[in-house]
Amino acid sequence: METLASRFDAQECLKALALIESDLDRLASASTEAQFHAPPRTGGWSIGHCIEHLTLTGEAFTAKWDTAIKQGISLNGDRANTLYPWWQRKLLGIVEPPYRMKSKTGRSFEPSSPLPKEKTIRQFRSMHQEFMRAIDRSRSLDTQRTKMQSPFVTWIWYPLGFSFDLALAHERRHLWQAWQVYRHLLSGIRVSGANREHGTGT
């Protein structure tokens, strides 16, 4: 499991994005086209479904980020390097892999279009470019006081900086799940985390 973020750091978020892409590249290279689309024998999402889900949720996040950044509160002096409160750190810990708590994904985030592996990954990378731009655009904002609406539950709002770390944890969660599916396909052993579920429920 990654070291839990305790406060927002734009550079660390950008590094995390690069690490996620590298991990996805390794998974894509290791899996064949057939393996990429094969669900585990115990049922649940395929590798491709996990990645498509991340693209769908990432696009929802970027839409909310765009709104929040346009309406954001500018920094007044130096950025306050505020520690996340305990409940936010707890939430990140719940989302990060390996995880125990699972919940059903919302209908709008369910993967439904099995695209070729190359196109699935290309769409994910395109979403990641928007993710990167959102982080860069946030540099002039007070990311603690600027809030963004959750793409999962409309009445929940997050501090902008925290929302970036939450989205990254969600990506690591489902990429870990995709690796579990791949190993399941190779070994034939039931693997925890391969069932259809949603990363945060929030």
Looking at the structure, what is the overall shape?
elongated
Question: Which CATH architecture?
Answer: Up-down Bundle
CATH class call: Mainly Alpha
For the terminal residues, how far apart are their CA atoms?
20 Å
What's the structural domain tally? Answer: 1
Describe the main β-sheet briefly.
2 strands, antiparallel
Helix count, DSSP H or I runs of 4 or more residues: 6
Rg from C-alpha positions? 17 Å
How is the largest sheet built, in terms of strand order?
A: 1-2
Helix-strand sequence: HHHHHEEH
Helix amount: 40-55%
Q: Structural class, from secondary structure content? A: mainly alpha
- If you average the pLDDT, what whole number results? 87
CATH superfamily annotation: dinb family like domain
